[in-house]
Every structure is written in structure tokens, then in C-alpha cells.
Amino acid sequence: MRNIASSSSSSASTPKWTYDVFLSFRGEDVRKSFVDFLYSALQQKGIYTFKDDEKLERGRSISPALLQAIKESRIAVIIFSENYATSSWCLDELAEIIDCKHVLGQTVLPVFYYVDSSVVRRQKGSFDRAFVKHEDEIEDKERIQKWRAALTEAASVAGWDVPNTADGHESKCIQEIVGDVTAKLGRVIAVEEKNQVGIDSRVHKVNALLNLGSDAVHFLGIWGMSGIGKTTIARAVFDRISTHFEGAIFLHEVREQSKSLEILQEKILSKILCLKDLRISSVFEGSNMILRRLCYKKVLIVLDDVDHLDQLEALAGKHHWFGAGSRIIITTKNKHLLVTHGVDKMHKVELLNQSEAIQLFSRHAFKKDYPARDYEELSNEIVHYAGCLPLALKVLGSFLYGRDMAEWRSEVERLKRIPEDEIMEKLKVSFNGLREVEKEIFLDIACFFNGKKEEYIRRVLDSFDFYPDIGIKVLIEKSLVTVFGGKILMHCLIQEMGWHIVRQKAPDEPGKHSRLWVAEEICDILARDTATENIVGMWLDLSTAKDVVIKNEAFEKMKKLRLLKINNACVSRCPNCIPNGIRWLNWHGYPSKSLPQSFQAEKLVGLNLQYSRIIHLWKGIKSLDKLKYIDLSYSQKLIRTPDFTGIPNLERLILEGCSSLTSLPSSLCRLKCLEALILSGCSKLDKLPDELGHALSLKELYVDGTAISKLPSSIVLLKNLKTLSFRGCKAKASRKCRAFSPSWLRGQKSQNSTGLVFPSVSGLNSLAKLDLSDCNLSDKGLPCDLGSLSFLVELNLGKNNFTSISAASIKNLSRLRILELVGCKRLEILPELPPCIEEVYADNCTSLQSATDLTKHGLLHRVSFSNCFKLLQDERTSSMIYATWNHMLKKFSLVDGSFSICLPGGSIPSWFTYQNSGPSITIELPPNWYNNEFMGFAVCVVSDLIRTPFLLELQWRELLQKIPGFPVQFTLIDKEMNRFCYVFTMAFVGAENNIDSEHTCLGYLPFDNILDALAFTRRRNGSLPSLWSNSLRSPNDWTCIEASAHADAKECLVFKEWGISLVYENDVRQNSELLMIPQSSELGERRFSSNVIVNRLKSSRRRRRGPEALPSFPSELTQIGDPSVRRPIRVDGVHLFSTVATDLPSLMSNVHHVHGSIGGCDTITNPGRYLCLAQGAWYPW
């Protein structure tokens, strides 16, 4: 079996530099004069210099300590004086220095102190006399010959002749030496930093925050989780800038040395002021001395690994302690420590990206930048386990160096069960600093809630009286968790550390653990009844349904159980008891008809029994003051709810899909805290309680698909109601009209209508979302005072039977952004829209003949009129619709930049530069295609609709229903076949039935959006398992673009033609042939408006031009997908790349909001195997 050590190059190893400079000199000649002044000057510049102690015992050979100091110095400064060669010690030093020059690349700088270089080089004069004496006294002639060769080589290096430098002024000569050393150190450090993985870009960010050009005193905090590289970055910054200060010190591991803050104060003052034998008797004295002695000096101080405010107050209390231009850098795991101390700026250290992680691991495991052959897959497994954490990568890489394949495989398997002790101990430092309640929160998140929604976690933790608002904040500040996309995330090794803490007292007896989350262990404990009272939480979440045996007495010993979750467990019968102390009960498929009679549930806060066999929860009235959340969704045997009199603090009641439920108790209306009532799918429920309006806190009411035939008149009292949905309520109007009370009913029943006649809504002052779709509403069925809903943001009236909508009803909705009229097949006129409208969906309105002027609406950026052929029969309306494209282009600065419009018709306009027939298009970009005038890409797609496309739910705006569209995938490819994929969604709904006609979608994608995506990727690169292209320096390095629809869209649409144009400001401004709207008769058989866009592009949109506008290349550009992807094959003018088809709709269930996204209709995506940012949101690929 091959040993990888033999195939790895040892030359890749980097020397460990402890000192910047080593001084070699003859003490009796220059120690108290020239060398003393030189040493002080170097120290003043922050150059860490080794000068041997004059009391150091001299022997016949060089000491091990001195030998080590030589090897660990970047630069050796040799001061040749008259008697230098008389010391065998000095000559041994010199010989060692020359060896280090050859082996380690040490820099040698000779100084000739009143001795000529030729005398040293040829060993003449005093040097010759010294060697005559050495040859008489020393028998080792080889040693003497080595001295001679070292003198010859050292004296041949360009150096300083002191008498002939600066007219013999030694002080000026010393300044020149220090300047040259400083310059050489800068070059050496720059080279070393290039050899440190990912360090250059990170140092650049920190230096930018330091604002080194300012004379103000700046405190900068660098924070992040253990082992992420805070110290490495701070050290690199220190090495790069320390010579620009009058004094500098890097104080390592303050936390470990903080038992004696006086000693740390002594170190700061001694190093910066070059003092010896300084003693400080108290912290107060030391603080005052730092203030008095450093307040006029420009200093650089790095306080590494600070963990308590006392340390900062003692070592760097206030800005005025230090002179103008000083910089104080603090590294810590605790962000709040920095906030409390009032640092000027903070920098959070991110994880390495995948490429950097592989490189760092390989340097330790293989002594080169990439894995050895046959070890690639194992290396990826290790990097995945390490979660791209530098500490773990170094520890594991060093451990595996030189080991064979069998040992590697064994270690990978071991890590799956037993964590690495060295890594765990480092990570536990932050945990040990938590208070008890914070430790409980941390362990709950590690065992149960990692990756879950923050709102849900806060609810559960609050039920435990853990005060999650402050507790989670502390965990974030101590770099133990992060919040992203509305979810709480924990690094995989931090989570494993939490698991390790739970298991460590009884590693082989899970029944004694405080928390259980491993399915096999839980099933064994429940079946064998081996639980103990230690258990506080049990989380059995099976990926697929499985039979689970639960003994009757399984829960009796769990007296402290506060959390129980069981999902996908097929249980034949429920245990005899559930612990009374439980706070959160979540049992998917609960097997009994009711909860056990013995279950008192006095501490219960959350009850989730979805898909249960419950018929009724309990009999009579139970006093459950703490219960806030009840979810009995899809409990199809539920026939009645409990009396809510004893549950006064209930906030959410979810009964969705309870198809046997026929009524609700009147006690529901007396719930003063109820905020959400979800009854959708309760198909037998035909009535709401009359006094529902007395539930004054109600904010959400969903009754979709119920049999409700009348509404209580009291509903107008719901002043806080924000969401109201009646989707699919198709009760006959004749019954409804008689049911409404006079104060509620304002409309009148149409003579021929069998649909819902909706009442007044004037009392719903807070309503933001209203869904009346698929309710058989007729012309007089809409509320006559719909326009009074001044806070309405989204209105869905789709699939109804009205022919027109009152202009006032829509126009007066001053905050309306989204109007959905999809499937209103009798609608003839599009109502006048309010100024704030952003999106209009009128697909499959087959009778629609005219529309108001859409060009008046400055925020409109998504319009879809598929299967609205009659709309184009009127010439005036047709021209207005097509002119909307022009209008969108002019106004896109007011939205996120991208926009689209979908219309009937079927050909690509001639002004599109690149055109292709078929399912996709690939264009070869011209040289230097990107410049200051480049704006973005215009896209045109012609397709046949074969069925309604899949729906992408845009969760960031919390729509009442899913809004559709099909994603156009842009793949930008460089000459090395690295691929960066970006997707933007074109507005498109379609129809329920196949449409035997072509449709055209026009879209515009500004390049600024792609730059934003790159910047976002850079901010999140620590958590992106992506590969980074080191060759891409500019957008012009992208050589071609492939555009296609996503695989799922191809199931709904037949794509026939594609068109792409690169849009430049000058072209559109000056050349009438490059129009952003097609010329006449170019799209189907209808005519486009001939209006021309001229001089309309210099709007107030955000502009970023020139190289400085880009995220710093190359670190922001992602090589996504398989790096070994085949080179393109030319097929009828189209490049084809292999990709992995993915079920996008199912993936969208995991979508997260991206903070800062404005429009929400653009995406970054990976066509292969990693991640996708869709609709302004990340989800796993």
C-alpha cells in the first residue's frame, strides 16, 4: 500500500519565524555603542529583534537557544568589527546564518563597522591574525574552513560601510539600516502571506477598516468562532503595518495570561518603550502608566483572544490613552465585548470557501496545494467534516500526513462517531464562558433546532422560561450560532461539540443523557424502557415512516421531560402517560382518540398533533393558562374542539384540513390573545361563530375551501386583521344574501348569479392581503367599498365571474402592489390601477378586450397577459401594451432593475443581436464586451404553453398564494470552462388547459444585479460549498453566455426561439435601430408601437462603473458545478453542457429570504451540485 509521505514534497513546508531580525556582533567591540542604538531603533519600529544577553554564559560551542534563535529569524544583520573573527562563538553564529541562508532562505545583511569588506572577505589584517591563532588552538580544520567560507560569502553581500555612509554619522547610518530592514521585511511578509491560504483578501478588508491614513485613534474588533483564523489575520495585519508606528506589540492569548494583568501591562510598556526590569504593582498603576507614557506615541497594539471587559479596561481603556494615529486591534469570540468597549469598527471573520479549505488541508496533509492522487474523495470528506474551519483542517491534515489509505479510511470512519479531542477542547472555550441558562439554550439548539426557523425556536425556548431574546443574542455574539435566512445555524463542529458535552458523562448509556436526538437510540430506549429522569428533551424525527414500539411505561421515568417531538413513527397505541411537566408536545400522527386522562398539561405551551387520530382532545374544561399554540392540522377524525374557556392565552389555532369538523364553540370568540385562526380545508364547516369579531387581536383568518355560507356581522370589528382569505368558497348567493345582517350586507344579489355576493369591508382598517379567488363572484358580488382598504397590499380576485370591476374599487387602493386576476374569463376591461402597482397578472382572461394605460405606473415591473388574445385586437390597446416595455426600461431604477412582460405572439424582434431556434442559446461574447456603457441583457423567449407552469412561492413577501414564473438561467463561462450561473424569473402564469398558440416573454436583466449576486456570494462565501476561480479578473474574462429555461419549466413549456441583446447606453441613446421595443409586426400578427427610446436611460438608477465597481476579483467569482465539466460540443450553433436536473418546486419549500433584496425576482443558481439562490432566496441544491 502506497505511503503518501514519499510522494509529498517537503519543500512546501514554511519556516517558523519567531524573530524579524537576529543581530550577530562581537560584544566587546560594539555592544554598548552601535549595536545598542541599532537594537533600540529596530524595536521602536516594531521590528522584533533578537540580541543575545551579555551575561549569557559563553562556551566553546554555540548554545542550542542561540542556534534556535538564528533559525527562527527572517533577517540576520551581521556587524563585522575589528575583533569579530577572534570569537569562535561569533564565527559559529556566522556559519549557522549562512546555512540558514541556503536552506531556509534567510536574508543576510552585513554591516562593516570600521573594517573594510575586503579584509573580511579575504581574511586579511586582524581577521588573518585571528585565524592564525584559531588554527593553532583548534584541531577541527573542517570547522575553520567553514568559517572562512562563511566570511567570504557574507562579506560578498552588499551591505553598509559605516565610516563611508552618511558622512560617518552613525545615527543616520542606523536609520538607513532600519529603513532597509523594514523594506525587506515588507517584501518577505508579502511573500509569506501569499503562501497563507486566503489571507491576502482578508488582510485587505481589515486594513480598509483600520483607515491607516487617519490621525484619529481607532479601535478595531476582529471576532468569530474558535479556530476560524482571527489570530492569523491579526498577525498578518500586524506584520504588514507595524513598521509604520513608533511602537508596536502583539500580545498573544490575553485570556490565558489574564490572571496577572499587571504582567501584561508590563509587557506592553517594556516592548513599546524598550524598558528593562519594569515592575508594576497594581492594575490601576499600570493603566495610569500606559496613559501617561503612550498618550503622545503612535502605537499599534494587538490584544489577542480577549474574553473579559476587565482585560480591555486594563490594557486599552480609552482612545485618549494613545497618541494620534494609533491603532488598537482586539480579537475575541465575543462580539458584545467589542460593543460594550465601544470599538470603532468590527470585522467578522468568515469561514474558508471550499477551494481554500481543500488547499489548506492539502498543505498539512500532503505538503502541497492539492490532494494526492486517489485521495481526492477522502480529502473532500474530511473538509466536509471540518466545515471549512481552519483549526480543524490543520489538526486533521497534520494528523493524516504520511499515513496510508487504510489509515485514512479508518480515521474518516472514527470521526463519524468520535470527535477529535484537540478540536473539541478549543471549541469548548466559548461554551464554558456561558451562563447556565445560555448553556441550556446552546445544547437545545445543537441537539434539536440547528437549521430551524428562528421564530419557532424562540417560541419553544420561551416556553421553557429560557428568555431566548437575550440568550440567542449572547450565542450569536460569542460566535456559537448565526442567523441567516430567518433560520438559526450552527457550524457542524460547534454542533458536534454540543453533542459531545451531552454524551460525555455516560457515552455508552444514552438513557442517561439529558437530550436524545439519534433515532436508533430513542427507539431502543422506548422499546426497552431504559429512560431515566435525566432526559429533558427527545427529538425523534424519522425521514420515512417506520414502525416504533413504545412501552406503556416508556415516559413514566422522564419526570423532567419538557420537549417531545415524534415524527413519522407508526405507533399502534399511545403510552399510558405523558409527563405533566412537558412544555412542548409535537407528535405527528398521534395514535389515540384523545390525550391521556392523567395528563394534566398545566405547563403545556405548544401542542402540535398534526395528522393525528384525535376525535377530541379532552372532555370538559381544562385550565391551561400557559397554552399558546394548538395545531391539529389534518386530524381528519376531529369532530369538535375543546372548550376554550380554560385556555385564555391561546395565540394560534390551526385546524387546517380537519375535514370532519362541523362547528366551532362560542368560547373561541372570547380569546383576547388569539392572533391566527386557520380553518382552510375544513370542508364541513359552514359557519363561523357569531361573535368572532370580539377576538380583537386576530390578525390572520383563513377559511379557504370551507362550506361557510355566511359571515358574522361582527367581523367588521376586527381592526387588527391583516390577512383574510376566502379562496375557493363557492357558496350560492341566494343563501348568503339572506344570511347577512343589514349592518353587514351592502351589496345586492344579481338576478342570475349563483356566486358569493361579498359584503362591506369598511371596518377592516389594517387589512393588507385579501384573497377572494375562485368564489364565483359576479359583477355585484364584490364589496362596494373595496376601495376603502387603505392598507391593502395584495388583492387576488382570480377565477371569478365578473365582467368588470369598479374603477374606484381598485384605483383608490393607495398601497396596492400586486393584483391577481388570473382566470377571470368573463372580465372584459382591466380596471384603472393605483399609482403604486408593481405586478399585474391577468393570464387566461380570455374575454379581456381593453386596459387602462399601464405606462402611467412608474413601479410596474412584472406584467403577464398570456392567453389574452382579444386584448391585442384593439390597435390602441395593443400599442399601449407594447409601449409598457419601453416604460419599464425607463423606470426600472425604481425597482430592483429587472423586469418582464408576457404577451401572446410568436417571433423574435429583429433588433435582438443573437437569435437561435431551439431550447437554448449560447453566444460567444466579443472581446472587451464589458465597459462603462454596458447596462445589461435584453432577453426574448418564444414558447408554446402546454400546461400551467410550476409555481415559485416568493416567501420573502409572504404572498397569499404562489405567484408563478419561469426562470431563465444565465450561465457565464470563461475560457477555462468555469461557470457562474444566475437566474431571473419572468412573470408568467398561463392557463389551466393547453393553449395551442405561441407566447413571447420579453425581459431585461441589468448587469448590476449580477454584480450584486457576486457581492452577496462574497459575503456568504464562508458557508458556500463552492469552488472559486482564480483565473477570472474581470467580467471580460467571461467568453460566452448560455441561456436556457430551467429543467422544470421545460415540462410546462415548449421553447422555440431565443433572443439576446447586450444593451449599451450609447447604442440605445443614439441608434434608433437598437430599440428596446420591437418594430411593427415583429411579434405575432399584431403591431407594436413605433415609439423610440431616446435619451431616457440616464435616470436615477444606481450606477457602478469601472473596475472599482466590481467585487474584488477573483475571490467573488464562483466556479459552480462540476469543475471537470466537459468542454462544449457544437450542435447546430448551440453549446450543450451536462447539468443535473432537479425538482425545483420541492426544493423551494426550504427557501430563505435574502436580507436587502428589493425586487425578489432574481437568482443565483448552480446547475450542477451545490447551491441555488432563487427568487432572492437561498435553498440547497
UniProtKB/TrEMBL annotation:
Report whether NAD shows up as a keyword of the record: yes
The first-level EC class reads hydrolase
| GO molecular function per UniProt | ADP binding; NAD+ nucleosidase activity, cyclic ADP-ribose generating
EC number(s) stated in the UniProt entry for this protein? 3.2.2.6
Q: Which keywords are on file for this protein?
A: Hydrolase, Leucine-rich repeat, NAD, Plant defense, Repeat
BP GO annotations: defense response; signal transduction
Q: Which reaction does it catalyse?
A: NAD(+) + H2O = ADP-D-ribose + nicotinamide + H(+)
Domain TIR intervals:
17-185
- Keyword Cytoplasm: yes or no? no
Q: Which PANTHER family match?
A: ADP-RIBOSYL CYCLASE_CYCLIC ADP-RIBOSE HYDROLASE, LEUCINE-RICH REPEAT-CONTAINING PROTEIN
Name under which the protein is recorded: ADP-ribosyl cyclase/cyclic ADP-ribose hydrolase
Could you tell me which species this protein originates from? Coffea arabica
